[in-house]
Each structure stands twice: as C-alpha cells, then as structure tokens.
C-alpha cells in the first residue's frame, strides 16, 4: 500500500519525523509531499525543504520525497496512493484537519485520510516554533535534527528573514 504524507515542512521537525517513522512502518511505501501554493511564502525553498527531509529520513528505505502541485487529494491519486497521513497534535488541529479531510473525501473518495496522534513530547512542536527559536538565536536541539538546526542558523547568520 502506498501512502502520502503532505505538508509544508518549512522546515521538517522532530514531530514530523516521528509521524514519518510510524507511518512508514505501516505501509509499503510512504511518499512525503511538500505542498505549498506559493514558493515565496516560507523560509526555505522547496529544494531546501526536500534536501532536509531526505537527509533526516535517510534511515527509512521505503520513504521518498517529492514536491506536489495542485490539489493534495488529486495529487495522491496521481501517485497511486490510497492513504493520506496527517498528524494531530491537539484539539486545535482537529477542526482544521476535519475540514480538510471532509473536503478531500469529496474530491477523492478512494483516498482515505489516516490520522496519527503526536507523541506527547512533540504535541507542542511546529515548524513555526522552531523558526521563532532560530529567529532569537535559541537552542534548537530539542526541536529539529542537527542538520536542520544548522540550516536555520545559516539563515540567521546571513540575516535572512525567518518567518
Ligand atoms: P501544513 O501546513 O499542511 O499543516 P505542516 O508541515 O505544518 O504542514 O504539517 C504537516 C502535517 O504534520 C500536519 O498534519 C500537521 O498536523 C502534522 N504535524 C506537524 N507538526 C507535528 C508534530 N509536532 N507532531 C505531529 N504531527 C505534526
């Protein structure tokens, strides 16, 4: 069975990696799909995000990374995926995720959204949290992999706006 795990991944955090490891153990093939409507909105380019995901998931042989386009549910169909993985951190995620999953049911009835609950230690963690810490030159090691932390700090040192 093929599953996709779509998201912005700007950048990938330990919370994402945990969902990826757990999802990859359930399916034959997990395709991580970097989705965004506008490459300009975000700190990292799609190429940078892809490279960071590939680096931090290189221990998982059935995981691959692509940049998506168009509607996520239709993109899942194009990739031959029957499952779309989403992570849920808290009740605050639920409403948004329910809306998305319900719309996707209509767009692609053959693609099932499967939710994986965040581990408690990651339930507060988002890409935005990591970026706020980087913007303030804080310690990133509990939030993102060292490789990603270095990429964030590179932006900080270069004076690039991290938003
Ligand atoms: P999006 O912009 O689509 O929300 P994200 O990259 O922020 O993209 O997240 C992709 C998916 O991963 C979403 O389903 C989100 O709820 C989930 N996710 C993000 N951070 C975590 C985390 N710390 N633990 C579990 N799931 C998470």
Give keywords.
single chain; 163 residues; alpha/beta; five-stranded parallel sheet; binds adenosine-5'-diphosphate
Explained architecture:
This protein has helices at residues 14-24, 46-56, 72-78, 91-107, 127-135, 146-158; strands spanning 2-7, 29-34, 63-67, 83-88, 112-117. The chain has 163 residues and is of the alpha/beta class. The chain is globular. The N and C termini lie far apart (36 Å). Bound molecules: adenosine-5'-diphosphate. Residues 7-9, 13, 15-16, 19, 86-87, 89, 93, 118, 122, 125-127 line the site of adenosine-5'-diphosphate. Adenosine-5'-diphosphate (ADP) binds at residues 7-9, 13, 15-16, 19, 86-87, 89, 93, 118, 122, 125-127.
């Amino acid at each position: 069975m093929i599953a996709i795990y779509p998201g912005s991944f700007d950048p990938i955090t330990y919370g994402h990696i945990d969902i990826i490891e757990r999802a990859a153990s359930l399916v034959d093939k997990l395709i991580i799909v970097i989705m965004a409507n506008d490459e300009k909105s975000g700190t990292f380019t799609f190429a940078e995000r892809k490279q960071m995901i590939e680096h931090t998931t290189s221990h998982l042989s059935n995981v691959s990374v692509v940049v998506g386009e168009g509607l996520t549910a239709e993109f899942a169909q194009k990739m031959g995926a029957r499952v779309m993985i989403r992570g849920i951190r808290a009740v605050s995620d639920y409403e948004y995720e329910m809306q998305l999953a319900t719309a996707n049911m209509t767009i692609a009835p053959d693609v099932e959204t499967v939710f994986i609950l965040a581990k408690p230690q990651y339930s507060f963690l988002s890409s935005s949290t990591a970026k706020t810490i980087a913007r303030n030159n804080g310690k990133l090691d509990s939030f993102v992999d060292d490789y990603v932390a270095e990429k964030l700090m590179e932006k900080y040192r270069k004076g690039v706006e991290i938003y």
